[in-house]
Amino acid sequence: MKAPSTSKPVVCVAGPFPPRIGGMTVQAVKLADRLAEEGLEVIRLQSFPTAPAWLRFTQRIRGVRTIIRGVQYLRSMFRIVPQCTVVHHLVGSGPSFFMHSVPLLLVCARWKKRLIFNYRSGNAGETFLRHWGWLAVPLMHRADCIAVPSAFLQRVFREHGINSITLPNIGDTELFPFHQRRQFRPRLIAARHLTSIYGMEYVVRAFALVQSKYPDAVLGLAGSGGDEPALRRLCQDLGLRNVRFHGSVPNPRMPDLYLDYDIAVNASVMDNFPGALLEAALSGLAIVTSGAGGIPDMIQHGSTGLLVPMRDPGALAAAVLNVLQDQNAAHSRTVAARQWAERFSWAHVYRELLACYQLPPSQDRGEAISAPGVLPSTEDVAA
Q1: Does residue 14 lie within any of the structural domains?
Q2: Alpha carbon distances (Å) from 330 to 154, 327, 340
Q3: Pairing of strands 86-91, 41-46
Q4: Rounded to an integer, what distance in angstroms lies between the CA atom of residue 330 and that of residue 237?
Q5: What is the pTM of this model?
Q6: How far, in Å, CA of 72 to CA of 47, rounded?
Q7: Which residues make beta-bridge pairs with 265?
Q8: 210 and 282 part of one domain
Q9: How far is residue 368's CA from residue 65's CA, in Å, rounded to a whole number?
Q10: The predicted structure's pLDDT at residue 56
Q11: Is 347's pLDDT higher than 90?
């Protein structure tokens, strides 16, 4: 790896990158690409590195795979971190926290590198901090800045004695143009992983109720996961038609896929700030979603979408029927949702990032970074 120039700030973006899939990967790629476009030097630290070709067979051996990935990650970390001014670490909970975050927390403190600890998992309060807070909280306090993407997680962290700021997800307003639909058709899409926490079973069962009213209704599932075989069997058992399993769709292809659908449905039972709903709002889809986790902080019921109770396919189906039967109200909600989503454009997020990194907006990228200033208060950054 070529050593970066020391004439301007260098940002290390540490997190999951392709071939890893998921919302955090999408945000890590967008963050690294956008920072580079702004003229910052960016180095990517892959949290889940791919084994070299001669060790590729170990990817099928779970324990061995984890050890090899851990060694690769640590080697890259020790090589990359000394070159950087700021380390922006996107992290989840569980084993990933202890494998990826703890080494960075210790190493950045040792080398006096500014560490932005960007926690993103929606299960922080229900599982992770409740079980591991005694160990995780003191470690998190070693970071220079603790950032979360939603007011929901900010409240959860505050309950555990952790002060944090909000750094919202990046809404790609250029990639996802607003498409005003003349009519909302019974064409539903759920763009989440096919796993239990995203409630795909409830989506399928809700669709069965919708299709009983609209026989030509279509459901698209854009994601992959371990529940796919069970979901396919459920569709067969319910006698459903027009269910499309799209698999994992690269983010740049999602705008074209959204054009084929009119209603975004989500039935997650644990969540934070799902990028799929942000993209749906940008794209002009009517939004029907459960109120899991931080979603009520995103989607205002009756204003930018419709919220329903978790684990309730009947309520989910009723809300979809509401969209189809009250088109004028649905149109108004999509316009309001796009206006809300504009708040997460890169121009807005970048200003907050500079404050978090302690880089002034007028910083000449050709000059070395000066002594750090004062980070704005949580209220200032979150406003």
Answers
A1: yes
A2: 31, 5, 15
A3: unpaired
A4: 32
A5: 0.87
A6: 9
A7: 288
A8: yes
A9: 40
A10: 72
A11: yes
